[in-house]
Amino acid sequence: MLFDGDGRLLLQQRAQCKVTFPKVWTNTCCSHPLHGQTPNEIDPPRTSTSAEPDGIKHAAVRKLKHELGIEPADLKSASSKYMGRVHYWAADTLTHGPNAPWGEHEIDYLLLYQLPKGYTLPLRPNPEEVMESAWVSAEELKARMAQEGLLWSPWFRVIASELLYDWWADLDAAFKRPAELSIRRFDAPAVHCKAGGAHSGAAATELSDLYKLEQSHEWESAARRKLTLDAEREARRRDLTSASRSASSAAANKQGGYGKVPTHEHSKKAQLARPLEVAAGLRLKFGSMALLSNLDLSTADEALRFCDLKLGEVSRSFAAVIRQLPKALVLDILVFYLVLRALDTIEDDMDAFKGREVDKCAHLRAFGDKYLGDEAWSMDGVGQGAERELLQNFCAVSRVFNGLPGSSKEVIRDITTKMGAGMADNVSIDMGQGTADLAAYAWYCHAVAGLVGEGLTQIFVGRGFETAALCGQGEQVWPFCKPAEENGGRSLGLANSMGLFLQKTNIIRDYLEDYADGRAFWPQQVWRQFARSSELGELARPTAHGAGSDGYPTAFDAQNDPDGAAVVGKGVNKQALSCLNFLIADALELVPDVLTYLELLRTPEVFRFSAIPQVMAIGTLAECFDNPRVFTGVVKIRKGLAAQMILDASGLGGVHAWFHHFALQLLKCCPKDDPSHDKISAATQRIIGITQDKAKARQRKKACTWLMWGAAAVGSVGVLVAYRRS
């Protein structure tokens, strides 16, 4: 803010062509420090012993020339003073409407300049930056700001009302004041809040409220820093979820008990453009390839009917895969699934036990030993929708559980107890920034999915449907598995690889939802290699995953807003995508074990049950790979594509064909400059090498089938033509 010798402030009206806040009156000049400038514009972090920020002043002088044509030499005689920093946000609703995609959220350094008395400053405004300028007194500014029809920048309105007039009352004293160390935080005026709930409720007052809380701590204290970072993280999560979104926006959220973020599904047009996938969906739902249920409900009691109903509600697409299992096995797996889904509901609910984490741990540890099998036990107030009803009526699940064969009950109880203990161990760990490292990441996946693989394998073998070879060791040597040589070869290593592949895929896909829940799993050892800050939420920012840059059209709607894409693209990077691709490569390294496990299966229904999730997982990884939408919601594969994979997952040839297809796709799509290119290439080429023989045989078989159908069609047409001629 530049004053003349008489104490008048120089204002400017921003040019009409500006992308954000055009035609608004505001302070003298706004600048942004740039790297690589001479003189240097970058200052070290502010502390209580910091000198005047010369870098900021250099940036201001550069911008004064750019916007107003003020030569640096004309400012040499001016007094300058750094006053402090302000933190504000505002949406440009006056220009772009109530759902404005543009706005500002920044920390500004405030500088006062004053010219000597009697000095006339030459001004040569840049018409691409400034429409008009004016020198005003404090009284004239107040009158102008009260005048209807004039537009004012939201930051200047706040600065004027909160700080400027106090300084202006005695500029000599203001220039002698020590700079304020803390950051003043202000929320936007009401007119600059977005519509649709995005800035309603708590979201509309987060900065002002934070500033009040910060005043109870020394600015440079660890307690103040933690308070600020926690508030920033919570605000970021709120912005990413339906907690501060409109009802219409929330309607697009991922469906299910804990759906809080949008789902990125393929459009109907994209699906209908693939007729073979549409045909596969129809065959799966209505044709001879539909999965038939082997669950006998003809003499079922109320408890079993409840279990079957809830299976369909909480599992949806996977329910049919469970029901098609052999009659002697289907009930065991159905109950196992519901028991673990109930346990998972307790673990996942981050609201019901908020502030009562000790109670949550107690429930998780008691679930397998005490609650399971107790036909009088149930739980209310935890979970949402069908999951909540499952816990409210868990006595029905226990009733069916008690009727299972002893071997299956023993396995289900053992696995449930171990999983509950593992989940409880993680409750007390701050997971807001992910697991600590790759080892902790693998251990968590074992606790919630590897153990499931162990339990299923033991039931398959114990009930006589599969051989003990299924319990063997794979290429991956897991620290949580018993050594094969000490346990007769039954390390259950392959079973754990099956579970870990699925869980890692889910964690990769659910980055945003997990982060928004405050319980993330991307390992810090990995993401900190790519991120530019110490905050996992950085990866969700558009400038971290290619927004506005070539090759990533889904990261920013460049077609509808090309000017915006050009602006955003200037500061964009791809650190989020690099991190994502590394984790996908890490998951792909488990595929050889997965394929070995599937090759050992001998019961068709068990093979289909085991293969379908694995094929879906490799398809999901291919959908997620190098995809910015992972950081803005939950990506989904096309339903028709899923139907094709389900139909083909009845045999090893079809499974190999899909793994081969997606491995080739991943290898082809991997950017050559990706930091993990070699890791991705090695993992995909290994999969291609394992699957290529059966995949090619499958392709030849399909080609022969199409030729036969084509020949039959041609023959039919020929017969019809001959008949009509006769």
From TrEMBL:
GO terms for biological process: dimethylallyl diphosphate biosynthetic process; farnesyl diphosphate metabolic process; isoprenoid biosynthetic process. Pathway: Isoprenoid biosynthesis; dimethylallyl diphosphate biosynthesis; dimethylallyl diphosphate from isopentenyl diphosphate: step 1/1. Its EC number is 5.3.3.2. SUPFAM superfamilies: Nudix, Terpenoid synthases. Residues 237-270 are annotated as: Disordered. It is an enzyme of class 5 (isomerase). It comes from the Eukaryota. The chain crosses the membrane at residues 706-723. Residues 242-252 have a biased composition (Low complexity). One of its GO terms (cellular component) is endoplasmic reticulum membrane. One of its GO terms (molecular function) is squalene synthase [NAD(P)H] activity. The keyword Chloroplast does not apply. Keywords: Isomerase, Isoprene biosynthesis, Membrane, Transferase, Transmembrane, Transmembrane helix. Gene3D superfamilies: Farnesyl Diphosphate Synthase, Nucleoside Triphosphate Pyrophosphohydrolase. Residues 1-158 form the Nudix hydrolase domain. Coiled coil: none annotated. Belongs to the IPP isomerase type 1 family. This is isopentenyl-diphosphate Delta-isomerase.
